[in-house]
Design brief:
The strands form two sheets. Strands 2-1-3-4-5-11 form a six-stranded parallel β-sheet, sandwiched between helices. Strands 7-6-8-9-10-12 form a six-stranded mixed β-sheet, with helices on both faces. α13 links the parallel β9 and β10. It is elongated and about 80 Å long. About 45% of the residues lie in helices and about 15% in strands. By secondary structure, the protein is an alpha/beta fold. The protein starts with 9 loop residues before the first helix and ends in a 5-residue tail after the last strand. The longest helix has 18 residues.
Length: about 350
């Protein structure tokens, strides 16, 4: 039986570099006050010996865990079937990895999950949290505030009392919706409908507002509530055709909703775009490539939004208490014209 290979210690690093253990510790843990030649020697010793810091001991020194919680306020079935979340997580993961931070994914499907997540965040396991897909009645913001950890939100929070100062990253949902509906109107469409997302989320509410900015007092029968899913898009499109058979344009609140709407239009014998022009929102390529015809949509840079969320949080964590709080970011959207409108 081969002998177990012992892990190199911090004392061995210090001896190899010819410095004290305290100096080696400051370099390894990112401390200040060490002259550059000594920093170089310690780092060289770390590389030569293959030294890996003990994370628990390092946390005691730095008070950092180099771990960030990503909290998504949706059920697993939604997260693992909607490519929006995969893109957002990819952006977050890339940014955290580039700064040697771990991503800890926390999902909340019910009230018991909220309490569990709150306990975990308050327990000192992570340095901060990235939270997205919140609903208006969600208790998570209050629970996270109680945990007293830095937080960045994905999407504009819907707190109406203005009492909470939240840092968030979002896209121009309302402006993007206006662009979509104006494009449909510019094609000569006069009976333009909107299939909404869940209106307890600010993104869906803002997109409905953008539709109304252009359509004014539109026939209320042309607005049908849905839930950002293909099945919801199918149900809403069927309802639209039953109540307003003369509809000639549809702005769907996201690409998955548009995918469902297109299926129903095909089943009902409606040609796209000749009879009904359709526009989505997101520009998620796995979805837009499935549609027939190819989907005109409003593009938001989902992966970049994830990167920015992580970047703002890391800036807060490294800046210290005296650093100014980062400002929220709202990214522009772009209308991507394809065959459906």
């Amino acid at each position: 039986m081969s002998e177990a290979v012992s892990r190199p210690t911090l004392e061995a690093v210090a001896a190899r570099a010819g410095v004290s253990r305290a100096t080696a510790s400051r370099v390894v843990n990112g401390g200040d006050g060490v002259r550059e030649p000594l920093v170089v020697r310690v780092r060289q010793a770390v590389a030569e010996l293959g030294y890996v810091p003990n994370q628990a001991a390092r946390s005691l020194v730095t008070r950092r865990h180099d771990a960030v919680a990503v909290v998504i306020a949706e059920p697993e079935t939604r997260i693992f079937t909607d490519p929006f979340f995969a893109l957002q997580l990819r952006g977050i993961s890339k940014e955290l990895t580039a700064h040697d931070n771990q991503l800890v994914l926390l999902l909340t499907e019910g009230r018991d999950d909220h309490a569990r997540v709150a306990r975990y965040l308050a327990g000192g396991h992570v340095d901060g949290a990235l939270v997205f897909s919140l609903h208006l009645d969600d208790p998570l913001p209050g629970l996270i505030e109680g945990a007293k950890i830095p937080t960045v939100f994905g999407g504009r929070p819907g707190w109406s009392d203005g009492s909470k100062d939240a840092v968030y990253v979002d896209c121009d949902n309302r402006g993007g919706a206006r662009d979509a509906v104006r494009h449909l109107a510019g094609l000569g469409r006069t009976r333009i409908a909107h299939i909404t997302g869940p209106l307890d989320q600010t993104s869906a509410a803002d997109r409905l507002d953008g539709y109304r900015d252009v359509m004014g007092e539109a026939d209320p029968r042309l607005i049908v509530a849905s839930d950002f899913t293909p099945a919801g898009g199918e149900r809403a499109m069927a309802e639209l055709l039953d109540r307003c058979p003369d509809v000639d344009g549809v702005f769907a609140a996201n690409d998955l909703t548009a995918l469902g709407a297109l299926r129903v239009l095909r089943e009902r014998g409606r040609r796209v775009p000749e009879d009904v022009a359709v526009i989505g929102f997101d520009d998620v390529l796995p979805v837009t490539e499935q549609t027939g015809p190819s989907l005109t949509t409003v593009r938001q840079d989902i992966e970049e939004m994830g990167r920015l969320m992580a970047r703002l949080l890391l800036r807060t964590l490294t800046g210290g208490a005296s650093a100014p709080a980062p400002s929220s970011v709202v990214l522009p959207t772009t209308l991507v014209r394809r065959a459906s409108a």
